[in-house]
Amino acid sequence: MSDFVIPPPPSTRLDVVGGGVFPVRRVYCIGRNYAAHAIEMGHDPDREAPFFFQKNPDNLDPSGVFPYPPHSSDVHHEAELSVFLKSGGMNISLETALDHVYGYALSLDMTRRDLQGQMKKAGRPWEIGKAFERSAPIGPVHKVADVGHLQSGAITLKVNDVLRQKGDLNQLIWKIPEVISYLSEYFELAAGDVIMTGTPAGVAPVVRGDVMEIAIEGLGSMKVTVA
């Protein structure tokens, strides 16, 4: 007999290329991690201390469909590389940070920009603009054993075959080992954690019917339709 007083909610699991599923524990997102994007958002691109916000595990959505969310008329795409951890801990060193990485995936950090802007002006948290339902379309997980560690390579996003975002992973202000190490000073990282690493310049609104296509060198591409 189960001790649960209500049925337990389903856990978030993502397909792994080649077979198997990856269980998601937490989702961390780093903000303004490409200089050009920091500039377009009105901020100094100098290497200030990184900052983070979180999405919920069940915001990750592999369906290929993004439902346009309520209470917004300015929803933006943000193409990102996501990192998946197989282990963790506190105070992880730069030298060992990549040892904790299981794999990588294509992902989108969809943002209710108007609501995020309101929260910024009020000095309030961003979750209403960032952590809404199905706000992180995501592809299958590619194992490090298959693709290696992604430290450079083109990252692009097209909307209806028109290029909107273009950058290179080597333009990350805070590199992946640094992000893992820094996060582990403040949080106890663990297997199942996902880190979204930031977006290049070119973020812009989408409307219903748009087809977004993100591509990252080494991971292929993924299409997501705005419903």
Using the 3D structure, state the CATH architecture: Alpha-Beta Complex
* CATH topology term: Fumarylacetoacetate hydrolase, domain 2
Class of secondary structure makeup: alpha+beta
Radius of gyration: 17 Å
Oligomer status: single chain
SSE ordering:
EEEHEEEEEEEHHEEHEEHEEE
Beta-strand level of the residues, as a percent range?
25-35%
Pfam family, one: FAA_hydrolase
Organism: Roseobacter fucihabitans
Domain Fumarylacetoacetase-like C-terminal: 27-226
Keywords: Metal-binding
Care to describe what's here?
The structure is a single chain. With 227 residues, this protein is of the alpha+beta class. The chain has one domain: Fumarylacetoacetase-like, C-terminal domain (Fumarylacetoacetate hydrolase, domain 2, Alpha-Beta Complex), CATH 3.90.850. It has 5 helices and 17 strands. Strands 4-3-15-8-9-12 form a 6-stranded mixed sheet. The relative contact order is 0.26.
